[in-house]
Known about the structure:
This protein has helices at 25-36, 48-60, 75-89, 112-140, 163-181, 202-205, 210-216, 226-237, 259-262, and strands at residues 16-20, 40-45, 64-69, 94-97, 144-148, 187-193, 248-251. The chain has 273 residues and is of the alpha/beta class. It has a seven-stranded parallel sheet, sandwiched between helices. The protein binds nicotinamide-adenine-dinucleotide. Nicotinamide-adenine-dinucleotide (NAD) is lined by residues 20-21, 23-27, 45-47, 50, 70-73, 98-101, 121, 125, 148, 150, 193, 195-196, 198-201. Nicotinamide-adenine-dinucleotide is lined by residues 20-21, 23-27, 45-47, 50, 70-73, 98-101, 121, 125, 148, 150, 193, 195-196, 198-201.
Amino acid sequence: MTMQVGNGWLQLEGRVCAVTGAGSGIGAAIAAELAAAGARVALLDRDGAAAAQVARRLEEGGGTAFALECDVSREASVQDAARRVRHELGDCGVLVNNAGMLRPAALDSVTVEEWNAVLAVNLTGQLLCARAFRPQLQAAGQGSIVNVASIAALHPQTRSGAYSASKAGVLLMSRQLAAEWGPLGLRSNAICPGMIRTPLSAKFYEEPGFEARRAALTASRRVGEPLDIANAALFLASPRSGYLNGAELVVDGGMDTMLMDLVPRPGFNATPA
Ligand SMILES: NC(=O)c1ccc[n+]([C@@H]2O[C@H](COP(=O)([O-])OP(=O)(O)OC[C@H]3O[C@@H](n4cnc5c(N)ncnc54)[C@H](O)[C@@H]3O)[C@@H](O)[C@H]2O)c1
């Protein structure tokens, strides 16, 4: 007998899933994979036109998608989005907190406004969304929250203002949500993406040789794609990860394991053929 392992394995068919920052990059890939798994997907983005464009593409592919403009840093906007998702698609069982931004700035010169703006989107935005969707996540049963952090949560990303601090905050907030809401039947887990080629980082890749230099720092010897993160997000969204709560998945092609390999040690640094 041949076993068929398709998207049905994920048990996400018909599940209502909300993805923030779904108008671009990693969020768009997560939304697309959820739709391909048969989920009914709400795409939230500050850029409503971008979310609508992705939603159209998913619907053309036979998926169910609902786009709406939402700024995750504004409580009223988030509350309104949660209401509209429930009205349009029913109780939401999966929230993917993905919206995020990066503003270059060194710590000696970052303005308080820039610092607070990054925290407001990357950290506070995830809390506001979790709180706004919590009643639906409970009503839907087996509610799962997936919080997108970064390897910058584990290592300081220099000259990036509050980015690392915001992402480190995401990891602890994610665990705190697990501890506080686990007894309500909810799960909260985080993903730390490594270097992923998206519009957020696309400019770097235009420089000749840049991609090869980045790949060389990674155990898997390649830069990550949004699909690499979507695959991890779908697992955490799915009841298949039902006993993971407060966990962190580092999805970086093994970059985080590379420190000793990058230290010059004559005779030890050769890459196997
Ligand atoms: N690309 C990488 O290498 C990488 C690495 C680690 C972590 N991440 C994280 O992954 C997530 C997605 O990043 P990406 O690379 O796909 O970025 P991206 O810039 O391609 O997409 C981010 C999306 O979020 C939206 N957004 C920004 N602020 C918002 C707000 N206040 N409310 C609603 N939507 C908002 C943007 O409009 C955009 O559509 C972010 O949290 C980012 O920090 C990315």
